[in-house]
Amino acid sequence: MSHDTTAINKLMDKFDGHHSVWLFGYGSLIFKADFPYIERRPALIRDWSRRFWQGSHDHRGTAAAPGRVTTLIPQAGAICEGMAYLVTPEEFAHLDYREKNGYLRLSTDILFEDGSSVEGLVYIATADNAAFLGHAPELDIARQIASSSGPSGHNSDYLLDLAAALRSLGKDDAHVFEIERHLKRLLKDRQ
Ligand code: SIN
């Protein structure tokens, strides 16, 4: 699979003809909604875990020194909490470009806090994409994040903004919060 998933995502025609589509965000899409949306609601998806296992060459790192950003790893029984946005299909041109470094649009059931659910889309960077980095201990992930930056800014801001957004939604994520704990200490030690 090539790095740039834009062309593959354009072929995803499941929601063609729909006036609006729900998009589930679990990473930067929670704290950086740089697209118009009709409505947004806290939501979750099942059987996926959020992990900082995806390399970022184009946003929070470079090809020579990739940062680490989130993707979802299949895990039976797990839940991933985030934010769902109701968007018009035109937004996917911008979103495909933004998520082009390995992320594919997948259809998924999105569950809302009132118990209702809807079929929508999520961007997932699967383990076979060229930028996938995979598992590493949280301390090593924090070290890599502390030393990475790219066109969209410091990798540390991605992690800290995501942790803050989850906290303000009242959501827990042991993986994210442990990386945050290490990262804050690393950044403090540098001062
Ligand atoms: C997402 O936020 O849903 C996808 C990953 C990212 O853009 O950080």
Task: Give the radius of gyration.
Answer: 16 Å
Question: How far is it from the N-terminal to the C-terminal residue, by CA?
Answer: 41 Å
Could you tell me the CATH topology label.
Hypothetical upf0131 protein ytfp
Pick out the low-confidence regions. none
How many helices in DSSP terms?
6
Share of residues in strands: 25-35%
The ligands found in this model are: succinic acid
The main sheet orders its strands as 1-3-2-4-5
Average pLDDT figure: 95
Global structural class = alpha+beta
The tally of structural domains comes to: 1
Classified in CATH, the superfamily is Gamma-glutamyl cyclotransferase-like
Main beta sheet strand tally, sense and closure? 5 strands, mixed, barrel
Can you give a write-up of this model?
- The chain is of the alpha+beta class and 191 residues long.
- The protein has one domain: Roll (Hypothetical upf0131 protein ytfp), CATH 3.10.490.10.
- The protein is 30% helix and 34% strand.
- The chain has six helices and seven strands; from the N terminus they run αβαββαββαββαα.
- It has helices spanning 6-10, 28-31, 91-98, 138-146, 155-168, 174-190, and strands at 21-25, 39-56, 67-87, 104-112, 117-124, 149-150, 153-154.
- The strands form two sheets. Strands 1-3-2-4-5 form a five-stranded mixed β-barrel. Strands 6-7 form a two-stranded antiparallel sheet.
- β6 and β7 (153-154) form a beta hairpin.
- α4 (138-146) packs across α6 (174-190).
- The chain is globular and about 50 Å long.
- It starts with 5 loop residues before the first helix and ends with a helix.
- The structure holds succinic acid.
- Succinic acid (SIN) is lined by residues 25-29, 69-70, 99, 123.
- Residues 25-29, 69-70, 99, 123 line the site of succinic acid.
